[in-house]
Design brief:
By secondary structure, this protein is α/β, with parallel strands linked by helices. It has three domains: 2-108, no CATH class; 115-355, Endonuclease, Chain A, CATH 3.30.870.10; 364-531, Endonuclease Chain A (Endonuclease, Chain A, 2-Layer Sandwich), CATH 3.30.870.10. Helix content is 48%, strand content 17%.
């Protein structure tokens, strides 16, 4: 039922309808079947000729309109500043199936936020400017301490406009089983505000416990704001949830609500996972708010995912990241100063942390921040890199970064699921194995089940824990987030976690290859992966 609802609300029905119309035009009229059918069946019916002429005129005008739109889209694609691998599929399909491609473009291409939403973002960015300037000045003090990692953090500063902070405490959770009990205990301690943002919230044991705490806290006067993605949570949580929570004074919104048939918002989804509790603690990472993430229920074997808890000044980055999407969803402009002007306690923990938000290209001035962040981590490595991702459909630049690192002698260890949640996507992921293996990348399948973690580590010094998958949805199309870490005490735990995973995983043999049928099918579908 959930898949059926997604089909009707994601725009696929609209696209398929146009594709079928286009096939009908080509087969029926271009091949002359209209004349054949008329001469053999309807020749004795005078009204049939008039009807056929009308249909011919309608289809002719449809083709003319499709051609004009295709030309407009052609020039828009050609002139856009982006990687050619995103342009070529559009151009190919525009010439093969112009009508269907026009429909597909209107639904799936990132066109930016609706004009009415941009005013909330502008208001947010105007308020953020003095905080960015303060963070930029503070960053200049860290040149010597950051060493070779300086460039990775400066990139986050200049693109995501997020500061880098020291004297923060970072706690690493290798499993949702460890994270959720701490989350619930943290929520119980809230005195002022709670911010919650997830791609998926699912009715079940975890959401029931969290919801009970939130209702209690709302009754105590704690400000509570919640956003969740309407596509990600489509069919997993009651559509009446925002209205039910509003009765308790909880502000809950769906991000980019879906509309039947012509949703038009398949991209630009909110894939972020953030929880902020007062100015005391903040969480981010790969876990959604659903029972399988804590292995309360079993889906696809043992579920492996990671989170981090941050205490200290870096919480401010996650507050701003949350508020920017909350303002879009709630259609309001939040005053930042009550949440960002705060004297945080300093911790003696060493290292640096830079939480940051990423978004679709139009939102980040055409910077693919998540992609470049991974490339910066890989390029930092002199000895070894660990990477875990549930989906391996990387961009060309990311593939080349892994290959080049392996070819210069860096040990690249890449872990993918042993039990996938999407079998066809997993098959496409496997189609990349041979190219990586030939360069010397070590690939492992996590035997116990599904590793949903999006975590990377270079030389046991520079790490990332977040929401960003190695696929085009995360790297190009969605709102994402995570935390870049350098020489924090928890880095050792991240390293140990990767080693434990490898001990439980199966090494993919260097002579691995897909069967000829699988290779052919994947080869066809890889043409459209940059579009999705």
């Amino acid at each position: 039922m959930k898949k059926l609802r997604r089909f009707f609300t994601s725009g696929f029905l609209f696209t398929i309808t146009f594709l079928l119309v286009e096939i009908l035009i080509v087969v029926f009229f271009e091949l002359g079947l209209d004349t054949i059918i008329f001469s053999k069946i309807f020749a004795s019916i005078p009204e049939a000729l008039d009807a056929l002429l009308i249909v011919n005129k309608v289809f002719t005008w449809v083709r003319v309109v499709a051609f004009v739109l295709a030309v407009i889209i052609f020039f828009r694609v050609i002139n856009k500043f982006e990687d050619p691998e995103f342009k070529i599929p559009w151009l190919v399909f525009l010439f093969v199936f112009p009508l269907a491609t026009v429909a597909f473009f209107l639904i799936f291409k990132n066109h930016g936020l609706p004009r009415k939403e941009t005013k909330y973002i502008k208001g947010f960015l105007n308020q953020l400017e003095p905080y960015y300037e303060r963070n930029r000045l503070e960053f200049q003090k860290y040149d010597n301490e950051l060493g070779r990692a300086k460039g990775a953090f400066e990139y986050i500063l200049n693109t995501a406009r997020m500061g880098t902070f020291k004297n923060n405490r970072v706690t690493y959770y290798p499993l949702g089983d460890d994270f959720f009990p701490d989350l619930i205990e943290g929520l119980k301690k809230a005195k002022k505000f709670i911010f919650i943002e997830f791609f998926i919230i699912t009715d079940g044991k975890l959401w029931g416990e969290v919801k009970d705490v939130l209702i209690q806290k709302a009754q105590e006067g704690v400000e509570i704001r919640i956003i969740y993605d309407d596509l990600g949570s489509n069919g997993t949580i009651s559509s009446k949830t925002p209205r039910r929570l509003a009765k308790y004074g909880i502000k809950c919104y769906k991000f980019h609500p879906l509309r039947p048939i012509l949703s038009g918002v398949y991209n630009n989804r909110d894939h972020r996972k953030i929880v902020v509790i007062d100015h005391q603690m903040a969480f981010t990472g790969g876990n959604n708010l659903a029972d399988e993430y804590a292995n309360i229920i079993t889906r696809f074997g043992h579920w492996k995912d990671t989170m981090v808890k941050i205490e200290g000044t870096a919480i401010s980055n996650l507050i701003t990241t949350f508020i920017e999407n909350f303002d879009i969803a709630s259609k309001q402009i939040t005053q930042l100063s009550p949440y960002l002007d705060f004297d945080y306690p300093e911790f003696n923990d060493e290292g640096f942390v830079a939480p940051f938000g990423d978004g679709p290209g139009f939102y980040t001035n055409d910077h693919l921040i998540g992609e470049q962040n991974y490339i910066n981590i890989i390029n930092y490595a002199e000895r070894k890199v660990y990477i875990s991702t549930p989906y391996l459909i990387p961009t060309y630049r990311l593939m080349e970064a892994m290959r080049n690192a392996a070819l210069r002698g860096v040990d690249i260890h890449l872990i993918v699921p042993g039990i996938p949640d999407k079998r066809f996507v997993y098959k496409i992921a496997k189609s990349h194995f041979k190219t990586l293996l030939k360069a010397g990348v070590h690939i492992y399948t996590y035997t116990p089940g599904f590793n949903h973690m999006k975590t990377a580590l270079a030389d046991d010094e520079l790490a990332f824990v977040g929401t960003i998958n190695f696929d085009f949805r995360s790297l190009v199309h969605h709102f994402e987030c995570g935390a870049l870490l350098y020489k924090n005490p928890c880095i050792k735990q991240i390293s140990d976690d990767f080693k434990n995973m490898i001990n439980q995983s199966a090494l993919v043999p260097i002579d691995f290859k897909l069967g000829i049928i699988s290779r052919s099918i994947c080869g066809l579908f890889k043409i459209i992966t940059p579009l999705l």
